[in-house]
Amino acid sequence: MSQDTLTLGKLDSSHFLANPRNFDRKLFDGVPSPPAQQQQQQQQQQQQHNEEGDVGKMGAAETGEESSSSTVAKTIAERYVLFSPTKTEQEIRQALAPVFKDQPVPQLEQFTVTVGYDYWSAEHVLKAALPESFDEVTTSFETVGHLAHMNLREHQLPYKHFIGQVILDKNTRLRTVVNKLNAIDTTFRFFKMELLAGDDDYACRVKENGCWFEFDFSRVYWNSRLQKEHERIVSKMKKGDVLCDMMAGVGPFALPAGKRGCMAYANDLNPMSYEALVHNIAINKLARRVFPFNMDARDFVRCVRCMRACLRQWRPFTHVTMNLPASSIEFTDVFRGAYTADTHRRLPLPTIHCHCFSTAEDRRADVISRIEERIGHPLQEPILFRDVRDVGPNKRMVCISFPLPPDAAYDTAPPNADAADHDDGDDRDGDGGDGDDRDGEPAAKAPKTETSSSSA
Questions:
Q1: Which pTM does this prediction carry?
Q2: Residue numbering of the annotated binding site for S-adenosyl-L-methionine
Q3: Torsion on CA atoms 332, 441, 215, 400, rounded to nearest 10
Q4: What is the spatial distance between Cα 331 and Cα 334, in angstroms, rounded to a whole number?
Q5: Binding site membership: which residues?
Q6: 332 & 245 share domain
Q7: Helix (H, G, I), strand (E, B) or coil at 401
Q8: What is the CATH number of the domain that holds 236?
Q9: Which residues contact 186 (CB under 8 A, 6 or more apart)?
Q10: One domain, residues 189 and 228
Q11: What's the pLDDT tens digit per position in 314-357?
């Protein structure tokens, strides 16, 4: 007997408003009944389809057992087999006839089933308990370890704790349910949240793309929905490549890149993200491949010259990730004039992967135009453009991957006169993880003129 064939009567929503966490779950006890509308639909289907075809479908769907008499007989001997109340006795017998073949169909008895709160899904419970004026109920959430993150609408907020408790009850793997608030930390860009139900515990542990990540979800940015996007970008890197992750967050690009045999310089302005990044490097045993920094993103790129003094196996980067969609494009100008003429023949120019937002109808043209304005030169093919996800009305998160144009890299008159050149130090061959361990972890915070933070 499926939940889809049964309905739950409407309940008094005021009780759940007054008792959001300790509501009386016995209110959901009772005898369910099939919805009249569904009965009508099934009667219409019965008239439209061939009787023999209908019998075959019901036999498979209603019994839920293998098509053999011994299996069904054993099942009946041990427990009841319940059929949908929308079916008549004649329909059930017709459905069972092919299963029992030459044997007589067992006697059918009327049986009253009483179900309770545990039987119903979260959607059933919320539809029954919330006011009739609610045109829809929210049961979707993002899972981050033991934590469920919801994004409730304004009219649902009076019942937020009740909704959170139902989600917690119906998902036994969860221990904490939170709701996203509109307020966003303006410096580090993680959203603020409130506890709806469960433990006040935001220390999450997540495995993604072969790496473990541990962090305080209330203090850093993490989006489980971007797992495939993280994987897609990292898959473009091969062993021996070097990644410059300007807005690294807790490491969803840098650590998997390290696992692939790449070296990664990973930076984030948020001290809590940096702390989690250092910890995640340690628990994944990537200290010889991934090197953490806690600086402004533009200053981080400019200090590449200093990296040779800090890292014995320093090598120029071949990929750049910029995953701060609200302002990534603004930071692309740091690469204008970043390479001096004497490095032209010896250092490869990186491929830049820039995540950003666009509301334009032609998003590809919009993003290219904005980047070209920042770097002062046209982009060159190959340019790869990907529409990542919807983030709001007519607003999309996109990713553009392009090689740094030589005209921009070797521009002798960059807009920022103090932009540092890439050092032409050791262009060593081999895997970044095979060299000596780092001498130290640069963590100085340079004066900030334009801040960047955790990835989005």
A1: 0.75
A2: 230, 268-269, 296-297, 323
A3: 20
A4: 6
A5: 230, 268-269, 296-297, 323
A6: yes
A7: strand
A8: 3.40.50.150
A9: none
A10: no
A11: 788 899 999 999 999 999 999 998 887 665 557 789 999 999 99
